[in-house]
């Protein structure tokens, strides 16, 4: 299927590794020009080079820094001549027990996983509407739909973003001008973040890492973890010309883990 987005410009946040990189790769393979971001310059530059090698005709700019910083967001947006596609992503808040979390912990989570994407949406969607094309995809988490106790900071902050987006996506000045805003909810994907979660489970339970990995994978109906490339391919479809009638949705990619009908 031709996705019809070659020559468009996309900003992909938190994209040097994992799911963000999967999205950037899929968009690059569709001929989309990219501005990518992550904190570590070395890994980001290596990813930028890898993306350029996927399509010699695209431009790829790398802007290093914490996407939670206003100055970094400004630099990211300034590096993009026209934002047609915005992929919001960021590191997730740490796990823990809510009894141990301070106001500062809550503020940091809400800042990173709710306010940061909202600020980027605010800076881009009205121009998308004027241009008659815009796609925003927020990478959130399966925990928005099926909360995980120890991920309370994530459950809370991401649910705030989800509620906000549900209203915004339905504004006629956006939906009526071919600007869509959707959330992609990953289940378990085989990224560095998952690997470090499995490592700490293995350490805490005194088990072999491979055994922990296998047991976790076998607990998923698909009997495997998702890959960043398949996540990216789905994201690229959401950004395509074919997905203009899909907005304000929360789409779970979890290999069947969520047990409900809806
Ligand atoms: P990952 O493999 O650890 O990759 C995270 C990426 O984000 C890296 O490129 C990292 O680069 C960048 N990053 C982190 N903090 C950043 C910041 N403050 N500013 C800019 N870039 C930043 O993680 P992932 O598995 O792809 O997860 C991506 C998101 O999906 C996270 O929010 C995670 O909680 C969520 N999620 C993942 C899964 C899963 O199974 N993988 C499941 C549910 C939800 P630097 O460190 O160099 O900045």
From TrEMBL:
Organism: Litchfieldella anticariensis (strain DSM 16096 / CECT 5854 / CIP 108499 / LMG 22089 / FP35)
Top-level taxon: Bacteria
Protein name: 3-oxoacyl-ACP reductase
Pfam family name, one: adh_short_C2
Family in the record: Belongs to the short-chain dehydrogenases/reductases (SDR) family.
């Amino acid at each position: 299927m031709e996705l019809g987005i070659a020559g468009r410009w996309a900003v992909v946040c938190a994209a040097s590794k994992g799911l963000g990189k999967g999205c950037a790769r899929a968009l690059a393979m569709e001929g989309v020009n990219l501005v990518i971001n992550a904190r570590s310059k070395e890994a980001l530059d290596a990813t930028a080079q890898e993306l350029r090698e996927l399509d010699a005709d695209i431009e790829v700019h790398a802007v290093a820094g914490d996407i939670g910083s206003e100055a970094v967001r400004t630099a990211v947006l300034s590096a993009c001549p026209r934002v047609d596609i915005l992929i919001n992503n960021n590191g997730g808040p740490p796990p823990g027990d809510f009894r141990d979390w301070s106001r500062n912990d809550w503020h940091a989570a809400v800042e990173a996983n709710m306010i940061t994407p909202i600020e980027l949406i605010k800076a881009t969607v009205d121009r998308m509407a004027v241009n008659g094309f815009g796609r925003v995809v927020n990478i959130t988490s399966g925990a928005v739909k099926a909360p995980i106790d120890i991920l309370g900071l994530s459950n809370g902050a991401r649910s705030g973003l989800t509620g906000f987006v549900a209203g915004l996506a339905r504004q006629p000045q956006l939906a009526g001008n071919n600007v869509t805003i959707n959330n992609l909810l990953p289940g378990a994907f085989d990224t560095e973040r998952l690997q470090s979660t499995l490592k700490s489970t293995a350490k805490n339970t005194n088990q072999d890492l491979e055994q922990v990995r296998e047991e976790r994978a076998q607990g998923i109906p698909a009997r495997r973890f998702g890959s960043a490339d398949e996540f990216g391919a789905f994201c690229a479809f959401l950004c395509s010309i074919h997905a203009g009638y899909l907005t304000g949705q929360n789409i779970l990619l979890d290999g069947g883990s969520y047990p409900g009908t809806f």
